[in-house]
Amino acid sequence: MNPQTSLTQSNPMAALSTSIRLLRCYHHFTFSATPSRFSGLRKASSELRLLSSATPSRKHVRPVSARRKEEEVGSEVNGSVVLREKDRNEGGGGERIVLTELHKEATEAYMSYAMSVLLGRALPDVRDGLKPVHRRILYAMHELGLSSKKPYKKCARVVGEVLGKFHPHGDNAVYDSLVRMAQDFSLRSPLIRGHGNFGSIDADPPAAMRYTECRLEALTEAMLLADLEQNTVDYVPNFDNSQKEPSLLPARIPNLLLNGASGIAVGMATNIPPHNLGELVDALSALIRNPEATLQELLEYMPGPDFPTGGIIMGNIGILEAYRTGRGRVVIRGKTDIELDSKTKRAAIIIQEIPYQTNKASLVEKIADLVENKTLEGVSDIRDESDRSGMRVVIELKRGSDPAIVLNNLYRLTALQSSFSCNMVGILNGQPKLMGLKELLQAFLEFRCSVVERRAKFKLSQAQERNHIIEGIIIGLDNLDEVINTIRKASSHALATASLRKEFELTEKQAEAILDISLRRLTALERNKFVDEGKSLRAQISKLEELLSSKKQILQLIEEEALEIKNKFFTPRRSQLEDTDSGELEDIDVIPNEEMLLAISEKGYVKRMKPDTFNLQNRGTIGKSVGKLRVNDAMSDFLVCRAHDKVLYFSDKGTVYSAPAYKIPECSRTAAGTPLVQILSLSDGERITSIIPVSEFAGDQYLVMLTVNGYIKKVSLNYFASIRCTGIIAIQLVTGDELKWVKCCSNNDFVAMASQNGMVILTPCANIRAVGRNTRGSVAMRLKEGDKVASMDIIPDALQKELDMTLEVHQRKSRSMNGPWLLFVSESGYGKRVPVSRFRTSPLNRVGLIGYKFSSEDRLAAVFVVGFSFGEDGESDEQVVLVSQSGTVNRIKVRDISIQSRYARGVILMRLEHAGKIQSASLISAGEVDPEDEYEDEDAAAVEA
Description:
945 residues; alpha+beta; four-stranded antiparallel beta sheet
């Protein structure tokens, strides 16, 4: 066998050097002109010269021709390149031909190099969780005697020891590895105690190795280096075969999961998160007690990673995937707090913890850049107040800024929320392997069992040898006079040994032990000590033999040793686990849930405005324009909702669409708006007739739908929780009918319906049978010829007591004008309030009672139930927004509208000389308006009027 080949197989470093030499050969190929006898192949091939490193001098280099393989070995392989070399040892034309395909040679050389990188540098071993450089550093410190109770020594001394004896690489690589093992923000349980500047979480570099000092941590000695001298692991030669180094360290707990690991090799990488020591030992104990434990059972003891920098782990989906398959994505958020300054009334976001492997200085700089570029709004100042006591980054907010929105923007735009991609790859049985949590723990237990077994065999061998000698010494002491006489008679040491062996049937070791015993140990007291030691050794031997014969006892001992480390070095969990579906931020998380106004025109233009766009005005004024409208366009609906609401859009064809409220672009009062076809998938000629904002799809909520021809139906709100982009059917319509009004209600509410001629029906929602979406419904009210349904509103359950008094009041024919009231608005701009007590409840399919007596040219535009909230004077605290066909808007107080009888005409709400008719009306609660703004609006309205 070639010596170089055997060296390559026995030493990975030799394999690496051989691979490098083979790769270097390709750089020595030179191309030259082909001899004239190969003129036919001049353009197709060229001569290759291989400069072999084995050639002693350049004059012996022979040309090696590159030919098609079919020319050399026939037509077995088409188009392969071979190397041909003459053998100088053979005379004449003798030559040695080595057929080597270059792509195979390159592949084998590169694979050899890749495996050398995988096993020797980049990936940790599953059993002790260390890479070779870390293992060598800890072993070198152990050999130097740098225990946790000894004084510190210069890091340069340790680095020199590692380089000179075990790790023939750069000193920077060794020192960087040593520094990382001493950083409490890099390792969950640091393995080295550092003294001096070892870097910071701001990515500040450590001081030079000549300035820093180090020693081992007590945890390292107990967890990795205990029992190292008891033949627990194999020792291998170092790089120059001058010393031995351990191939592994006898770890007592899974260090790979405790401190994690990261590394990039050739074609693969590893990234394992750190975990809490106590939880890891508990999970290991659970697996020992129940080898068939499932992943869910292990997660009860170790629910997730525990990063040294703390933070909040969002959700457990990524953790489950990582523990099950070895690959997963864990989302980590920094831990923050909100502080409110009582003097300035300003809020501040305090960053107390940041995600793992995040540079704090870069994070602060990134936030400052976002604020300067106007990408992050609402921040007035940033300060880093971190000190020895802990981390504290203060982000002061501007007055009026929402801390939750700013914080969500920080999560989305900066590294304050980051992800840790788990890729749990380690070296197992000499090969890289991707493993889940249970497989990692099982691999460690198998290794730990072998360590305990080898340690027990080592102790048993020592105890048996010592017991053997003790037995001989006791025999000698029992026959002391004969032993002394035998020794006296012997003329030499060898004869004395032989005589003792023959006289007392002793072994050579026993005889040597008797000869080596000192005279002072020949007393009776010393004999008793030897007897007691023999008893103790026999008990120890029996215990060790019992241990080796029982796998259960070995596992029990492993658990006891692990629990001992846990009890001594346990620390509380730092990373907080938050049970959420995902840590991903959506647009809704960074948008304030503010109140907003939605305005929709007949031709399908929608726009979003702030609620204070329209000033509060007096009754009977002209109002303010809602903005530009297209030709022959008119306002269709006007409502109030919040940005996070899910808006349901109901069309005249009975189809419902859905889109978040914040998706509608915000614009000014004078803007024309956005076409709904850009937001919804509307068909040709389809119009949106009603929109319903929904904050939560509650199970006890329903939607009541009313058509122009007077058909009504009630559908559970849950049917509309998930709506596809093309919409779903809300109601079945007959030809000529269209869906006009949709309201949200519960079974305890009441429905108030009114026709264009002013007829009113009050009926409980419970009387309307709940049906499915794809149905028509039943007749709501019996309409006279030429009459149509004009409006519908819901009387909430909060007003039920007043409604329960309706019958009693009606029976006594009371003339009380107390609320709640029905607010009527006519198309000509008139309106009035009528007490609900003036109407009695009735079933569906009835004509109803007169609520408004109109002139021949006027009709009812809308009806509302008012009286939900009251001011200090006991009057209604609501406001109504009126929109004319030309787009003019007027917002007035409900309390300014007169309370009249059912037959009265009402008072002027809005003058419509040049504004057409009232197109729509909406109700707003005054409790959502700032009182100071209200007074300012009133003054402005008075001046404008």
